[in-house]
């Protein structure tokens, strides 16, 4: 991607408007102290934040390509061990990013840089910041320091407090086109045409998700299991529906892990229900799960169009319940009895 005299050596697809903006700030050496990268999950926000950080610490100051990938800083950054780049996120078993995590983060950013270069802090999933963590962070954002850059990634920036939004440069990431994802999988990741077709479609605009499908076999197998559980869930027999829920939720550990997996299952089920609606309406080209066309065809007549639409809204409601601390399994069982 050639822009403003600097070429970005970043493995990202789509969102050229964002990379052009960041390349310009790198070229002019005029970088804001706080950014919000906002957009759907798995769209490349964290990757972009990390490559931006690497470009800022890259030692090849007049390199036309950033990051150069060769200098000692770049090599450390690639290994994830650069002393001036910090990343924090919600621990898998916790509900929030805690104030302690944010205090450590701020302390690290306040130390002087190893090479008198930039220090970059990335908070992945800033929607998970606890209230006290937000307040601690706010003090840092209110008194920006030269050559310190904070990047928050978030699925929807509007959930963040106005005080943070107003102090940050907001960059909105949008889904990439299916064609762009297809080309990337074939050209840069040695996918076969049928893999590229299935995964680019399944990823629905999220390049990082398409790549996960291609490279992480067990992730794809889990996804397949979630798709099959939906087909079982469509069984008209209520006991069979409960069994499908038991199968998929029964083995999950409790607490935040099960909240997260229930959220993921609901997203997948909503999209599958939507695909069945599209099939009812003969809009086959828009179907996301074309990789599962056999399974979809077999389930096509299990629910009427009206019931499918009810199912989609019941799933949406269940997600709200889970967000309000209802037990995830109960929330799914509630969907089973209401459709
Ligand atoms: Zn470099």
Give the termini distance in whole angstroms.
Answer: 49 Å
Largest sheet: 5 strands, parallel
Going across the biggest sheet, name each strand in turn. Answer: 5-6-7-3-8
CATH architecture verdict of the largest domain: 3-Layer(aba) Sandwich
- Which range best describes the helical content: under 10%, 10-25%, 25-40%, 40-55%, 55-70% or over 70%? 40-55%
Determine the CATH topology of the largest domain: Rossmann fold
Number of strands: 8
Commentary on this structure:
The chain is 54% helix and 10% strand. With 339 residues, the chain is α/β, with parallel strands linked by helices. The chain is globular. A 5-stranded parallel beta sheet has the order 5-6-7-3-8, with helices on both faces. It has a 3-stranded mixed beta sheet with strand order 1-2-4, with helices on one face. The chain has helices spanning 16-28, 45-57, 72-78, 99-110, 131-142, 162-165, 178-189, 193-202, 207-215, 217-233, 238-249, 255-280, 293-299, 305-323, 328-338, and strands at 2-3, 6-8, 34-38, 65-66, 85-89, 119-124, 148-154, 169-172. It folds into 3 domains: 2-172, Rossmann fold, CATH 3.40.50; 175-215; 216-338, Up-down Bundle (Zinc Finger, Delta Prime, domain 3), CATH 1.20.272. The mean pLDDT is 91. Residues 58-60, 67-68, 70-71, 73-74 line the site of zinc ion.
